[in-house]
Amino acid sequence: MTCSSRLRILALAAVALLAALALIAAPASATKPPRTMAALGDSITRAYNSSGPGCPSGPGLDCPKNSWATGTNPAVDSQLQRLEAMHPGDVTAYNDAVSGARAVNLLAQASAAAAQDPDYVTIEIGANDACALPPTPLATFRTQVESALGTLVNGDPKVYVQMASIPDINQLHSLFTSPPDPNALTRWAAFNVCQGLLANPLSTATADVARRAAFRAGVIAYNGALEQACAELKRCLYDGNAVFDSTFTRADVATVANTEGIDVFPFNAIPIVGEGFANSSADYFHPSLQGQAQLAATTWNASFRDFAKRR
């Protein structure tokens, strides 16, 4: 073999090695816009209590048309709508989230999504685990998330997953207690909303202050577990705490000012103070329509660069 032949073989081998390394190390952000997506999670992804035209008018308050992930309401500009701008009329979306879901329920959602053969899956989970009394143990939470991710990858090793962080729920306490909003205080108690954080909301007792701080620390720990579980997969992208770091306003939350009235119990048994919708279903916890739009923008900006930059 001549020297030039050996050099040519070595050069080809080097090119092949570099190509293989590039494939292995390719960032999860380098992907083409998907044609099929699935959204997993809880009531946030179901746009529960987001209100507005076309939303349910009974006790079941899911309104997926307003979802940050798969919504079709133009006011939201959901991830689905942004994808459809790239592929008009050629994107299929499934909202497999379930209101009230915790991480333990994510496996069933992942199994349903795997059967739908998505290119891209969004996950927003953990708020209900944090609000539970007692909250889900951290190790258990991570294992449950990992099991769901494993199911998605077993269904399609090439699926791309965006893992959204849990919002900084403690902002709700700050927003509606300084100054105190009587509607928020009444509804947090009446609807038993996230009592791990929102019980005794005006108390400055040491135990209550410590409980709120511990709640926030728990959410931060859950987000760490989400990031770690996601990092185990080449095609899973954590949002870098983009959702957690987002600041929201009262208008971003379901309040009596932006959430319509429903003349059924228990909503018709709770009068409102000041202006707003009579019999409002507002729980002062879930994102409003405006909050869903903010969540759509935040998650999109933290998503896979190769298709997010095209918007």
List keywords for this structure.
311 residues; alpha/beta; Rossmann fold; 12 helices; 5 strands; 42% helix
Describe this structure in words.
By secondary structure, the chain is of the alpha/beta class. It has a single domain, classed as SGNH hydrolase (Rossmann fold, 3-Layer(aba) Sandwich), CATH 3.40.50.1110. Helices cover 42% and strands 7% of the residues. Helix 3 packs parallel to helix 5 and helix 5 packs parallel to helix 9. The longest helix is centred in the C-terminal third of the chain and has 26 residues. About 6% of the residues have low confidence.
Provide the spatial order of strands within the biggest beta sheet: 2-1-3-4-5
CATH secondary-structure class: Alpha Beta
- CATH homologous superfamily descriptor: SGNH hydrolase
Mean pLDDT: 90
Poorly predicted runs are 9-27
- What characteristic shape results from the CA principal axes? globular
Order of helices and strands: HEHEHEHHEHHHHEHHH
How many domains make up the coordinates? Answer: 1
The portion of residues forming beta strands comes to: 5-15%
> What is the β-strand count?
5
CATH architecture tag: 3-Layer(aba) Sandwich
The secondary-structure class comes to alpha/beta
CATH topology: Rossmann fold
Distance between the termini: 54 Å
Radius of gyration: 22 Å
The helicity comes to: 40-55%
Question: Which SSEs are present, and which pair or pack?
Answer:
Layout: H1 3-25, E1 36-41, H2 79-86, E2 92-95, H3 106-115, E3 120-124, H4 127-131, H5 138-155, E4 160-164, H6 170-177, H7 182-190, H8 195-198, H9 206-231, E5 236-238, H10 242-245, H11 289-301, H12 305-308
Parallel strand pairs: 1-2, 1-3, 3-4, 4-5
Helix pairs in contact: 3-5, 5-9
